[in-house]
Amino acid sequence: MTIWVNGDEVPVPVPLDARVSLADLLREQLHLTGTKVGCNQGACGACTVLIDGQRVLACLTLAVQADGKCVTTIEGLGAADSLHPLQAAFIEHDGFQCGYCTPGQICAAAAMLDEAAGGIPSYLTADLATDRIVLTREEVQERMSGNLCRCGAHNGIIDAIMAVAGEHRP
Question: In 3D, which of 79, 81, 83, 82 has the Cα closest to residue 91?
Protein backbone atom coordinates (compact mmCIF):
# COMPACT_ATOMS: atom_id res chain seq x y z
CA MET A 1 0.00 0.00 0.00
CA THR A 2 1.35 3.41 -0.98
CA ILE A 3 0.10 6.70 0.41
CA TRP A 4 1.60 10.07 -0.31
CA VAL A 5 1.20 12.41 2.67
CA ASN A 6 2.11 16.07 2.32
CA GLY A 7 4.20 15.29 -0.75
CA ASP A 8 6.15 12.37 0.69
CA GLU A 9 5.59 8.67 0.22
CA VAL A 10 4.99 7.32 3.70
CA PRO A 11 5.68 3.87 5.01
CA VAL A 12 2.42 2.27 6.00
CA PRO A 13 2.72 -0.34 8.75
CA VAL A 14 2.24 -3.82 7.37
CA PRO A 15 -0.06 -5.47 7.90
CA LEU A 16 -2.46 -2.57 8.15
CA ASP A 17 -5.78 -3.41 9.73
CA ALA A 18 -8.38 -2.62 7.04
CA ARG A 19 -10.56 -1.01 9.74
CA VAL A 20 -8.03 1.73 10.62
CA SER A 21 -9.36 5.19 9.83
CA LEU A 22 -7.25 7.69 7.96
CA ALA A 23 -7.40 9.94 11.05
CA ASP A 24 -5.93 7.18 13.23
CA LEU A 25 -3.24 6.39 10.67
CA LEU A 26 -2.24 10.05 10.44
CA ARG A 27 -2.29 10.74 14.18
CA GLU A 28 -1.23 7.51 15.82
CA GLN A 29 1.06 5.88 13.31
CA LEU A 30 2.47 8.79 11.30
CA HIS A 31 2.43 11.23 14.26
CA LEU A 32 0.79 14.03 12.27
CA THR A 33 -1.28 15.42 15.11
CA GLY A 34 -2.56 18.50 13.28
CA THR A 35 -5.53 16.45 12.14
CA LYS A 36 -7.96 16.45 15.05
CA VAL A 37 -10.67 13.97 15.92
CA GLY A 38 -13.66 15.76 17.36
CA CYS A 39 -16.81 13.68 17.22
CA ASN A 40 -15.43 10.61 15.41
CA GLN A 41 -18.80 10.45 13.62
CA GLY A 42 -18.32 12.86 10.70
CA ALA A 43 -20.49 15.59 12.20
CA CYS A 44 -17.97 18.26 13.19
CA GLY A 45 -15.35 18.45 10.43
CA ALA A 46 -12.38 18.77 12.78
CA CYS A 47 -10.69 15.86 11.00
CA THR A 48 -10.98 17.32 7.50
CA VAL A 49 -7.99 16.60 5.25
CA LEU A 50 -7.57 16.63 1.49
CA ILE A 51 -7.27 13.54 -0.69
CA ASP A 52 -6.18 14.45 -4.19
CA GLY A 53 -7.39 17.99 -3.45
CA GLN A 54 -10.87 16.96 -2.31
CA ARG A 55 -11.97 17.48 1.28
CA VAL A 56 -12.74 14.33 3.21
CA LEU A 57 -13.52 13.49 6.80
CA ALA A 58 -10.54 11.46 7.96
CA CYS A 59 -12.49 9.87 10.82
CA LEU A 60 -14.91 8.28 8.34
CA THR A 61 -12.34 7.45 5.65
CA LEU A 62 -10.52 4.16 5.91
CA ALA A 63 -6.76 4.45 5.50
CA VAL A 64 -6.90 1.82 2.74
CA GLN A 65 -9.12 4.17 0.73
CA ALA A 66 -6.12 6.50 0.42
CA ASP A 67 -4.01 3.83 -1.26
CA GLY A 68 -2.25 5.37 -4.24
CA LYS A 69 -3.54 8.84 -3.43
CA CYS A 70 -2.12 12.13 -2.16
CA VAL A 71 -3.23 13.16 1.31
CA THR A 72 -2.68 16.74 2.44
CA THR A 73 -3.00 17.63 6.11
CA ILE A 74 -2.64 21.01 7.79
CA GLU A 75 1.07 20.25 8.15
CA GLY A 76 1.34 20.07 4.36
CA LEU A 77 -0.53 23.27 3.49
CA GLY A 78 2.11 25.62 4.80
CA ALA A 79 5.15 25.93 7.02
CA ALA A 80 6.00 28.25 9.91
CA ASP A 81 8.14 30.40 7.63
CA SER A 82 5.78 30.17 4.65
CA LEU A 83 2.13 30.13 5.71
CA HIS A 84 -0.67 29.18 3.34
CA PRO A 85 -2.79 32.29 2.62
CA LEU A 86 -5.65 30.80 4.65
CA GLN A 87 -3.38 30.20 7.64
CA ALA A 88 -2.22 33.82 7.52
CA ALA A 89 -5.81 35.05 7.12
CA PHE A 90 -7.01 33.00 10.10
CA ILE A 91 -4.36 34.73 12.21
CA GLU A 92 -5.15 38.18 10.83
CA HIS A 93 -8.93 37.82 11.26
CA ASP A 94 -8.93 35.95 14.59
CA GLY A 95 -10.35 32.85 12.92
CA PHE A 96 -9.60 30.65 15.88
CA GLN A 97 -9.99 30.64 19.63
CA CYS A 98 -9.10 27.28 21.15
CA GLY A 99 -7.72 26.19 17.76
CA TYR A 100 -9.03 22.66 17.89
CA CYS A 101 -11.17 22.95 14.75
CA THR A 102 -8.73 25.24 12.93
CA PRO A 103 -6.78 22.59 10.95
CA GLY A 104 -10.00 21.08 9.62
CA GLN A 105 -11.47 24.51 8.92
CA ILE A 106 -8.41 25.56 6.92
CA CYS A 107 -8.22 22.30 4.94
CA ALA A 108 -11.94 22.49 4.18
CA ALA A 109 -11.67 26.14 3.17
CA ALA A 110 -8.78 25.42 0.81
CA ALA A 111 -10.80 22.74 -0.98
CA MET A 112 -13.95 24.86 -0.89
CA LEU A 113 -12.21 27.74 -2.65
CA ASP A 114 -11.03 25.33 -5.36
CA GLU A 115 -14.56 23.90 -5.69
CA ALA A 116 -16.04 27.36 -6.15
CA ALA A 117 -13.30 28.36 -8.62
CA GLY A 118 -14.12 25.18 -10.55
CA GLY A 119 -17.78 26.19 -10.81
CA ILE A 120 -19.14 23.55 -8.43
CA PRO A 121 -22.42 24.93 -7.09
CA SER A 122 -23.73 24.79 -3.53
CA TYR A 123 -27.27 24.74 -2.22
CA LEU A 124 -27.27 28.57 -2.32
CA THR A 125 -25.80 29.02 -5.80
CA ALA A 126 -28.49 30.90 -7.70
CA ASP A 127 -27.39 29.98 -11.24
CA LEU A 128 -26.45 26.31 -11.47
CA ALA A 129 -25.20 26.76 -15.04
CA THR A 130 -22.70 29.49 -14.21
CA ASP A 131 -19.01 28.86 -14.48
CA ARG A 132 -18.23 31.79 -12.19
CA ILE A 133 -19.48 31.48 -8.65
CA VAL A 134 -19.55 34.63 -6.56
CA LEU A 135 -18.61 33.76 -3.01
CA THR A 136 -20.89 35.85 -0.84
CA ARG A 137 -20.70 35.56 2.92
CA GLU A 138 -23.82 33.39 2.87
CA GLU A 139 -22.36 31.16 0.15
CA VAL A 140 -19.18 30.63 2.19
CA GLN A 141 -21.21 29.89 5.31
CA GLU A 142 -23.21 27.27 3.42
CA ARG A 143 -20.11 25.68 1.91
CA MET A 144 -18.39 25.54 5.32
CA SER A 145 -21.45 24.30 7.22
CA GLY A 146 -19.89 20.87 7.76
CA ASN A 147 -17.11 22.37 9.89
CA LEU A 148 -18.18 23.46 13.35
CA CYS A 149 -16.52 25.87 15.76
CA ARG A 150 -17.76 25.54 19.29
CA CYS A 151 -15.78 28.51 20.65
CA GLY A 152 -17.54 31.25 18.74
CA ALA A 153 -14.81 32.13 16.23
CA HIS A 154 -17.25 31.59 13.36
CA ASN A 155 -17.26 35.23 12.22
CA GLY A 156 -13.47 35.38 12.16
CA ILE A 157 -13.36 32.12 10.19
CA ILE A 158 -15.74 33.45 7.55
CA ASP A 159 -13.91 36.82 7.47
CA ALA A 160 -10.60 35.00 6.87
CA ILE A 161 -12.04 32.88 4.06
CA MET A 162 -13.72 35.91 2.47
CA ALA A 163 -10.41 37.79 2.54
CA VAL A 164 -8.60 34.98 0.73
CA ALA A 165 -11.52 34.48 -1.68
CA GLY A 166 -11.34 38.17 -2.55
CA GLU A 167 -7.64 37.90 -3.37
CA HIS A 168 -8.26 35.02 -5.77
CA ARG A 169 -11.21 36.27 -7.76
CA PRO A 170 -10.96 35.71 -11.53
Answer: 83
Q: What is the pLDDT, as a whole number, of residue 170?
A: 45
Q: Look at residue 127 in the predicted model and tell me its pLDDT.
A: 87
Q: CA 95 to CA 154: how far, in whole Å?
A: 7
Q: Find the radius of gyration of the CA atoms of the chain.
A: 16
The parts of the chain modelled with pLDDT lower than 70 are 168-170
Residue from 146, 133, 130, 139 nearest 161 by CA = 139
Identify the pLDDT of residue 11: 82
Can you list the domains of the chain with their CATH numbers?
Answer: 3-75 (3.10.20.30), 85-167 (1.10.150.120)
Three-state SS for 104-167 is: HHHHHHHHHHHHHHCCCCCCCCCCCCCCCCCCCHHHHHHHCCCCCCCCCCHHHHHHHHHHHHHH
> Which tens digit of pLDDT belongs to each residue from 126-136?
888 888 898 99
With contact defined as beta carbons under 8 Å apart, do 36 and 47 qualify? yes
Q: What is the DSSP letter of 29?
A: I
